[in-house]
Design a protein that fits this description.
The chain has helices at 5-15, 43-49, 84-94, 217-225, 232-245, 250-256, 267-272, 277-295, 298-303, 315-327, 347-358, 390-404, 410-432, and strands at 19-23, 55-59, 61-66, 69-78, 104-106, 114-120, 127-132, 136-141, 146-149, 162-165, 363-366, 371-378, 381-387, 441-442, 445-446. Helix 5 (232-245) crosses helix 8 (277-295) and helix 11 packs across helix 13. By secondary structure, it is α+β, with helices and mostly antiparallel strands. The protein has three domains: 5-165; 210-300, no CATH class; 341-448, no CATH class. 34% of the residues lie in helices and 18% in strands. The longest helix has 23 residues, at 410-432.
């Protein structure tokens, strides 16, 4: 692989202690989900998952430990260039005129917006420390935040981010005493949602064994011996999701993932800094398992879902809509849309778009190897029988986002293939057991 400037810069910053992560091409969004928690990714993993065109970013706070301190950032966001001098004057006031001491990145967004990096004694939550509404804003970022780094390309202007003061020594600052700016008096206060009553945490170990759980061998090996795991803390999330998906209860999941003799089972003890199983289980529940359970809780998912009111279009809006329909291919009229005419992220829409743009056989299920294959010319290459990998899914989702302005989930893209896969496996089992009726065809053969 030819070493690009982005790859070289990421390696250099990683060697300085920064928690580097890959950002989608011409975007500010990380390639992988779940980046807000977990340990810093190892360079070996980053080098193996890089491909040309990616942007690069850094996770602030705990993943970027610089000596005994933690990387943080002052974000100067200048929305109106006419107020640039005023914003920079306020920045100078906040840092005592020492803004040139900070390693600084000029944003690709322009207008003089910039990111000033410094070291903080401890990670902290983001807060806005100065602003003028709709003109400019200064915020400080740390825990749970990421920033885009040079030589990444800005998604809107397509201009590169640039170092004006390259990173070396990071000045030590403590902004804990600096107050957040108050809400403007002209803005209406937002009504507070009633606080949800949290159930008391109770953990009772269950008599369950990892060998009795119906999960993939790869996931089982990752939990038991760490096979394929490069970020132990980060892997707790997919492990919890797999165990919950296998039908385990909360106590059963916590029992497996606090079993100290298992590779992942020791992680919660290390983070909670305890030898007590109940405390380790509480840490795991609070920071990982609860998120997985909430995402599968229909009541919580739909509790705050807005109810769309029917909207009667004006004559001009109807004419504009008719013009858009007549301008595009006829099949685009079959796409499900929202009331503002945006395309919905549904499995039906994904299937319709893929089949009409790349052909009805762009993805095929190899019934012999039970793998998904690519059979079409895509924007990133022409393939015939290439096995589908995670990087292809990432590229495909990125294409959907840029071309159709929505990013489908993996399951919406490939659910129909996995349903076919299930049917094939069941048919093979029935065929092997002699349960298929005579005349059933399987891979070109007929049961007699």
């Amino acid at each position: 692989m030819q070493l690009t400037n982005t790859f070289k810069e990421a390696r250099r910053l990683h060697q300085m202690g920064m928690g580097v992560l890959w950002i989608k091409p011409k975007s500010k969004a990380p390639v992988e989900s779940g980046w807000t928690s977990g340990e810093r990714q190892a360079w070996k993993y980053l080098s193996e998952t890089y491909y040309e065109g990616l942007n690069v970013g850094v996770r602030l706070g705990e993943p970027s430990k610089i000596g005994d301190n933690y990387l943080a950032c002052i974000d100067v966001d200048i929305k109106d260039p006419a107020f640039r001098k005023l914003a920079l004057a306020k920045l100078s006031e906040l840092v005592g005129g020492k803004e040139k001491d900070f390693p600084t990145v000029m944003s690709g967004g322009g207008n003089g917006s910039r990111h000033l990096y410094f070291a903080s004694p401890a990670p902290f939550k983001m807060k806005t420390i100065a602003k003028e509404k709709d003109k400019w804003e200064i915020a400080i970022y740390s825990a749970g935040r990421q920033m885009v780094l040079p030589p990444s390309v800005h998604p809107v202007t397509e201009k590169p981010y640039q170092w004006v003061s390259p990173p070396g020594d990071f000045p030590l600052y403590d902004f804990s005493e600096v107050p957040s700016v108050s809400v403007s008096k002209t803005s209406a206060p937002k009504p507070k949602a009633p606080a949800e009553k949290e159930e008391p945490f109770v953990f009772t170990p269950s008599p369950i064994h990892i060998d009795d759980i119906k999960i993939s061998d790869a996931m089982k090996d990752a939990i038991v011996v760490g096979a394929g795991v490069t970020d132990r803390s980060g892997y707790l999330l997919p492990a919890c999701s797999a165990l919950v998906g296998a039908g385990l209860s909360q106590d059963e999941v916590l029992t497996i993932l606090t079993e100290r003799k298992l590779f992942l089972g020791a992680c919660a003890y290390d983070h909670a800094r305890t030898d007590d199983r109940a405390r380790a289980a509480y840490w795991l529940y609070r920071y990982t398992l609860k998120k997985v359970l909430d995402e599968r809780n229909a009541k919580k998912i739909f509790a705050a879902a807005p109810i769309e009111e029917p909207v009667l279009l004006s004559i001009e809006e109807q004419a504009a809509q008719d013009e858009e329909l007549s301008a595009g291919p006829r099949w685009t009229r079959e796409l499900d849309r929202t009331k503002d005419w945006s395309i919905r992220s549904t499995m039906k829409n994904c299937k319709t778009i893929l089949q009409n743009v790349f052909g009805p056989s762009c993805f095929k299920l190899n019934e012999f190897s039970l793998t998904e294959e690519m059979h079409a010319e895509f924007p990133w290459g022409k393939f015939s029988g290439k096995e589908l990998h995670d990087i292809d899914i990432t590229m495909l989702k990125d294409w959907f986002a840029k071309t159709w302005r929505f990013e489908p989930a993996d399951e919406k893209l490939f659910r129909r293939f996995r349903l076919s896969l299930t049917k094939i496996v069941i048919t093979r089992l029935r065929h092997g057991l002699g349960l298929c009726p005579r005349g059933t065809k399987l891979k070109g053969s007929t049961r007699s």
